[in-house]
């Protein structure tokens, strides 16, 4: 009987490890896994991050939580009902102060994109690209104004 219990326990642990393995996997996906709409969503998100001058902290945060992107997307899924309830109040409060409002459809698209492993790497690349593009734009104009 002890063999059956230990075998059942061992099987249970293997099953749990297999089910949780994806959530904590650290392999990187490729951008080929993402659709055009998902890449467009990441572009919009990167543009917002750079516009708010949060590119460097965002990149540091994304690099540090890369293995947890699937769990992060599930946390976003958990808070979706609360966001739906609070959206109207939040938009009234944040729109004048921060210059943007919370878009529930965009939030849902970001949550779905973050479920894929390749999304974090693609988002970091887009933030870096937009940051370089913005710095080259400001650098060129400042050189022209000096002359």
Question: How is this structure best summarized?
Answer:
By secondary structure, the protein is mostly helical. The protein has helices spanning 2-21, 36-51, 55-64, 69-98, 104-114, 118-146.
Would you write up a description of this structure?
This protein has 147 residues and is an all-alpha fold. It has one domain. Helix content is 79%, strand content 0%. The protein has six helices and no strands. Helix 2 crosses helix 6 (118-146) and helix 4 (69-98) packs antiparallel against helix 5. The model is unreliable at 1-5 and 141-147 (pLDDT under 50).
Throw out a few tags for this protein:
6 helices; 79% helix; mainly alpha; 147 residues; disordered N terminus
What does the secondary structure layout of this molecule look like, with pairings?
Elements: H1 2-21, H2 36-51, H3 55-64, H4 69-98, H5 104-114, H6 118-146
Helix pairs in contact: 2-5, 2-6, 3-6, 4-5
Write the H/E string, N to C: HHHHHH
Helix content: over 70%
Largest sheet: none
Overall SS class: mainly alpha
What is the typical, i.e. mean, pLDDT? 77
- Give the number of helices: 6
Q: What is the alpha-carbon Rg in Å?
A: 21 Å
User: How would you describe the shape?
Assistant: globular
Low-confidence stretches: 1-5, 141-147
Number of strands: 0
Q: Tell me the distance between the termini.
A: 88 Å
Number of domain modules: 1
What is the percentage of strand-forming residues? under 5%
